[in-house]
Specification:
The complex is a heterodimer of chains A (about 170) and B (about 70). By secondary structure, chain A is mainly α. Chain A folds into two domains: about 80 residues, no CATH class; about 40 residues. Chain A contains seven helices and no strands. In chain A, helix 2 runs parallel beside helix 5 and helix 4 packs across helix 5. The radius of gyration of chain A is 29 Å and the shape is flat. The relative contact order of chain A is 0.11. About 15% of the residues of chain A have low confidence. The longest helix of chain B is centred in the last third of the chain and has 35 residues. Chain B contains two helices and no strands. By secondary structure, chain B is mainly alpha-helical. The chains are: A mainly alpha (about 170), B mainly alpha (about 70). Chains A and B meet through helix 2, helix 4 and helix 5 of A and helix 1 and helix 2 of B.
């Protein structure tokens, strides 16, 4: 049921093949990455994460209850899009990024959701509930005029209409 | 992307014992300066993973120290 609700029915999606409209090599991720090793990539991320501005905004996001796994995923994918590193390197550095965020959170004394627990679908369930309620409300709105239309009286003449045709059963 | 990749990766990283620096073997000094073995090629293959685990363990160690210092205060 929840999987069915996750499907996005909106039309605000890229057109199939839209990703191939740019010339090959025009996008940053189509070129060789800037940092090819794990150490180089971490050398890019960790000093930036230790900056005061980033730490402040990170703590605010942590207090909002956003899972650290989602945050690290977003950070990693943005790095891939900017051509900083490959997806493989990005996946390898993600535990270190999460650990750095945990370190910053612990140093600030903030409680955070790591996203590591198996039952981390509280946000998803709430979203699913909202969607289900909206669907139920919209169904009620649609049903009302239909019910009014079915209340028309049916006369006996319409029911006892004589059958016609070659295949009709004759009494 | 599968949301369980990162938790599974962290679980695997946690299971790995603390990696220490291995001493490099001395040069033989003979004609064969660099001995290439199958072990070395395997090490080269797993080098990114090893460096990722090492950096993860270092950051984790730093976090544990921060937590301990907070407990002591």
């Amino acid at each position: 049921m929840s999987e069915a609700l996750d499907i996005d029915f909106s039309f605000s999606r890229p057109i199939p093949g839209e990703g191939l409209t740019a010339e090959l090599g025009a996008r940053p991720w189509q070129n060789p990455p800037q940092f090819s090793t794990v150490d180089e990539a971490l050398g890019y991320y960790i000093p930036r994460m230790a900056q005061e501005d980033f730490t402040k905004s990170l703590i605010n996001v942590m207090e909002m209850g956003v899972p650290l796994t989602s945050l690290s995923n977003t950070i990693m994918l943005s790095g891939v899009m900017e051509g900083k590193h490959s997806v493989d390197v990005g996946i390898l550095i993600m535990p270190s990024i999460i650990e750095t965020m945990k370190l910053l959170g612990d140093a600030a004394g903030v409680e955070y959701d790591t996203g590591m627990e198996k039952n981390t679908s509280t946000v998803d369930n709430n979203t699913a509930l909202m969607v289900a309620e909206k669907l139920a409300a919209s169904k009620d709105d649609v049903k009302q005029p239909v019910e009014e239309m079915t209340e028309e009286p049916v006369t006996e003449d319409e029911i006892k209409e004589p059958l016609a045709g070659l295949m009709a059963r004759r009494n | 992307m599968n949301k369980r990749i990162v938790p599974n990766l962290i679980t695997s990283f946690d299971r790995i014992p603390v990696l220490k620096k291995q001493e490099q073997p001395q040069d033989t000094g003979g004609l064969l300066r660099k001995k290439v073995s199958s072990e070395q090629t395997t090490k080269a293959e797993y080098a990114p993973l090893v460096s990722a685990v090492k950096s993860y363990q270092e950051i984790r160690q730093a976090r544990m120290e921060v937590l301990e210092s907070r407990k002591n205060v």
